[in-house]
Amino acid sequence: MAAVKEMKTVTASSQVHPFDQLSSEEMIMVSQVTRQAKPAMDIIFNTITLKEPNKQEMLSFLGWDTSKPRVSRIEREALVVALERPSMKCYEGIVSLDQEKLTSWVHVPDVQPILTMDEMLEVEQLVLKDEKVIAECRELGITDMSSVFNDPWAIARHVSYPGRGRRLMQALMYMRTCEDDNQYVHPLDFVPIIDLGMMKVIDIEYIKPKNSKFARPTIPMQQHNFLPEFVGEENYRKDVKPIIVQQPQGVSFSVKGNEIDWQKWNMRISMNYREGLVIHNVSYQDGAEKRPLFYRLSLSEMVVPYADRDPIHARKHAFDVGEYGLGLCTNSLALGCDCLGSIYYFDAVFNDHNGQPYTVPNAVCLHEEDHGILFKHTDYRNGRAHTVRGRRLVISHIVTVANYDYGLYYYFYQDGTFEYEVKATGELNTHVLAEDETPEGYGTLVAPQVNAQYHQHIFTMRIDPMIDGFNNTVGQVDVKRVPYPTGHPMNMMGNAFTAQTTMFRDTHEAQAIPSYETSRVWKIFNENNIHPVTKGPVAYKVTSDCQVPLYAQDDSVVGQRAGFAKKTIWVTPYNENQMFAGGFYCNQSSGEDNLESWMKEKKSVSNTDVVLWVTFGMTHLPRVEEAPIMNCEVLTGVRMQPCNFFLRNPAIDVPPTNKKINHSVDAKIAPKEAGCCSTKL
């Protein structure tokens, strides 16, 4: 993972760490080694990525496990997922980069690996050249195929083509009335089905009007655009003054390769084709002690199920991690637009179907930002006020998956708090209605004949904790009234309530949903480390502000495939083969290999190496104000705070700031009279 510097205070190192993403040179080596080992096979390289090292070895390598001699060297390996032409059989290979040798090659039957950008671009062009598609467009009055566009989507599970024997996609069709026009307000009423093995449109399906006198809807032609050339410079607000974020003395973090130090935090980052940004080996410096917190943090899976009961729309439940890959959908970020201030960028490297690397420049943004008041107190007796402003470290990337864009943010705070946040923006997915047709309670008309369907965005984060050590227990905390009425000796005034903690001891217990009645939260405990003051185990508290149920039926197609969305909290014993909540081969899956299925067998999760899965999301009932483009919907998905972990507020040593430091001015005073700070703006 290459780094791009935007400030002089940061240094970079070229030394390869076991967690570092594969370099371009390593990817080339892997593809060459694989082809040389399998000369008779016509190979499509679906993905080439780092095979992450064995965790037990890494705990020793990182210095956390001192029970045996420290591991000083980790073999560097790559995982290859490949398809063979013309059979489209799937193979998994392991390449040792140290030995430059293919050490494993296994056929994996009845699976379909992730859909790649190469395939989606091929499908997009294939559809436009298909005679059946051209004929459908002509019937709708379209003669210029250059005005027709399509979004290739995963097929989910098609009733006419069951199983995973054929590699399938569906294309959602649109048109544009001019270059750069917003295609999502001109949807078409048919969906081509594509066999990627044959590279052929094998069927065309129609979204037929309901309760309408029309056999087919006409194409809505009214424009709804948001790009500057359509809005017009003369229509922009004239009263927006610049806000300038500056750090004249440089940033407070340092970077060495992919290792980040910020105040008391230390961590490493990597990028992969699937999860995108991953945070490794997170620790916090507590006085003289460096305390481990998290081995690995990542967004494991997400699903976007749509509500319309039409069989075609029921297939619309995108697994953006497991079907398309957040890494493969990552944007190249623009300085001053996507990130503001003094920015440190990291590049990302992925592979094409030929096994050749390509780089996404500025894929990851690292910066720090003001976060308001950290703490404050005013002594009302003498009027003395003490205020300390806080800041946070932000590590982020932005992905575009067809119509939707997601900003994905890892926040680290000065008091030891960690947050994961999603900002959903982009354009609503739409379909066309006949002139006399209504959404029938399953969507919102955002323009004439343009329906934005009800849907959900549900995310599952995988948290591999090591709270003060690598053996942890997750517990549930419920606040309850005491079981005694007012006037009882145990509740004389009727005001008593208490908190009850239930430790999850096995996987059957370790499944939970929110409770409004009990203000439910969860904690990750280290039962081996007892806090000297509270006399209880040290812990980190886990909360989420965005908890939603999956509204689809449990036995629906999406209910079977996205079982992870049925609960907020799951806890599993660590298993290196269980990384993705929707299963490793999520594309066209049936649901037999996912987080929900892993929980069926009762296993211990008590005081051992565990993984916590936290599900969060939003139920999206579109508004007209979200068209033609949607303002960010912010989801604070996971917040983890130290809870009886430190001896006192760990941020008590953050120095206070003042107007001389941050150059704040009184806006009521004219700039020339604003005092000593005004000339420095």
From TrEMBL:
Keywords per UniProt: Copper, Disulfide bond, Manganese, Metal-binding, Oxidoreductase, TPQ
Cross-referenced InterPro entries: Cu_Am_Ox_Cu-bd (IPR049947), Cu_Am_ox_TPQ-bd (IPR049948), Cu_amine_oxidase (IPR000269), Cu_amine_oxidase_C (IPR015798), Cu_amine_oxidase_C_sf (IPR036460), Cu_amine_oxidase_N-reg (IPR016182), Cu_amine_oxidase_N2 (IPR015800), Cu_amine_oxidase_N3 (IPR015802)
Pfam families: Cu_amine_oxid (PF01179), Cu_amine_oxidN2 (PF02727), Cu_amine_oxidN3 (PF02728)
Active site: D320, Y404
EC code(s) of this entry: 1.4.3.-
Domain Copper amine oxidase N2-terminal residue range list: 17-105
Annotated positions of the 2',4',5'-topaquinone modification: Y404
Domain Copper amine oxidase N3-terminal: 113-205
Cofactors demanded by this protein: Mn(2+); Cu cation; Zn(2+)
Protein's name according to its UniProt entry: Amine oxidase
Lineage, uppermost ranks: Eukaryota, Fungi, Fungi incertae sedis, Mucoromycota, Mucoromycotina
